Amino acid sequence: MPSRAASAAAAAIAEKMKDRNLPLPSAFQIRFNTDDEDEWPQEATLLSAAYSGNIRRLKEIATRLDADGRGADSTLRRTNFEGMNALHAAVGGKGLLPMCRYLVEEVRMDVNKRDTTNGKNMTPLQHAVSGGNLPALRYLLDKGADLHVASHLKGQEGITALHTAVEKGRCEIAKHLLLRGAHVDGESCRSTPLHAAVTGGHDSTVKILLDHHANPNKEVNLVTPVDIALDTPSLPCLKLLILAGAEVNGVNNPLARAALEGLTEAIKCLLEAAANPNIPNMFGKLPIEIAAEYGTREDVEIMFPFTSPIPTVTDWNVDGIISHIKLERKQLEDGDFVEKKRSELRRQGDDAFKKQEYTNLSALYTQKYMTNLFGIKYAAICGMWLHWSLCWHRMGDGKRALQDALMCKKLRPIWAKAYYRQGAALMLLKNYAKACEVLSEGLELDPESDEIDKLYWEAMELKSTSTTVA
C-alpha cells in the first residue's frame, strides 16, 4: 500500500497532468525531479516505455521486474504504477498499434480493466479517447472493449467514452463511437453527451450529435443544452440547437438569461426563433426590463417592438423603460420605502394563502423578495425558493416544484426543509423511489422532523404498492 506522502504526490502529479495536459513521461520527470528514467521506480519506467510504444524496452523492464520467474508476460499483466497499467499508458499515449497488439494479443491484458489512479477508474477505451487515439480505440473495440462502460468517480458517475470525446471536441472519435452503437442521449449524473459538447463550446461535435438525433431539449438537473449554450456562451452551438428544434421558451427562460448576460446576438437569434419576450423570469421581470438594468440600450431597442406595454411604465418607449428601471432601483435603496412595501406584500400574501390563490401568492412572494435585494440575507433567498416550490406544488406542477426545491437545496444543502420540499415534489411526479432516498437524507439532517418522517413512510408505502402492481 502506498504511503500517505506517495498518495499525495500522486494526486499532485495527476492535477498537474490535468491542468497542463502533460504527456506521462513529462509528468514523471516533474514527479521524480529528474529526466533520468534510471532514477525512477521501475514500474514508472515500464509505463513510460508503453506510452512511447517501445516494445523492446518494455520487455527488458518487465524481465528485470520478474522476481518470481513467472515470465515477462505474467509480470506485465500484474504490474501497475499507482493504479495504471501498461495498456492504459499505451493507448492513452502514442497509441501505436504494434504496442497495443503486443499487450492484448500476446500478453493478454484485459481490454476492460479499469485503472485506480486517484479513483478515476478509467478503462483503456477511455484512455484512448482522452489521448485522441482513434486507431487504438478502433482496435480496442474490435477486441471487445465495452463502449458503454461509465465512470464511477464521485461527481462524474455515468460519464462514458462518448461524453469524454465530445467534451474534448474529438469529432472523428465521436463519429466512430456513435457508429459502433454509443448511446447518443446517454445520461450521466451531470450531462448527456450533447450537454458536454455544448459545455466545451464544440459546435462541430454538437452538429455530429444532432445529426445522430440527440435530443436538444433533454434536461439533466433541470438544465437544457440551450441553458448551457447561453452560459458558455456559444452562439454557434445555440444556433445549431435551435435549428434542431430546441425549445426557446423553456422554464429557465432563455431570453431573460440572454438579456441578463447582455448577449445581444443571442437575443436576436432567440427572437428570430419565436422566443416570447413577454414571459417574466423567476423574479417577475420581463427580458426587456432585465436588459434595461443589466444589458445595453441596443438590447432594449431590439426587444421593444416585440414586447407588450408594461402597465407600470408611464412612457412606453426605450427611454421611458430605462428611466423606469433606474427609478425602481433608486426606490429599493430607500429603507422606508422597502419596509412599507414589504409589510403590504406580507399582508397580501397572508390573504392569498388563506384563499388558496397560489398563483397570486407566488407573484407576491417574488415581489416581497425583490423589495429586499439590496441587503437580502442568504437564508431569505433560500426561503424564496422554498416558498415558490410550495406554491407550484399546491398548483399541481410537480416539475416546477422540484426545480425550485433543487435550487433551494443547492443554495443550502444542509437545510432539511429543502429535502422535504424536494421529496414532496418527487411524490407529485410519482417518483416514489427517489422521494424515499431524498426524504431519508432529510431525516439524517433533522431526525426530529415529524413532517419529513410522515412523508417518508408515505413514500415508502407508495413505492411498495407501485412495485407490487408493476
From TrEMBL:
Signal peptide: none annotated. Gene3D superfamilies: Ankyrin repeat-containing domain, Tetratricopeptide repeat domain. Keywords: ANK repeat, TPR repeat. TPR repeats lie at residues 416-449. ANK repeats lie at residues 120-152, 157-189, 189-221. Transmembrane segments: none annotated. It comes from the Eukaryota. This is Uncharacterized protein. It comes from Eleusine coracana subsp. coracana.
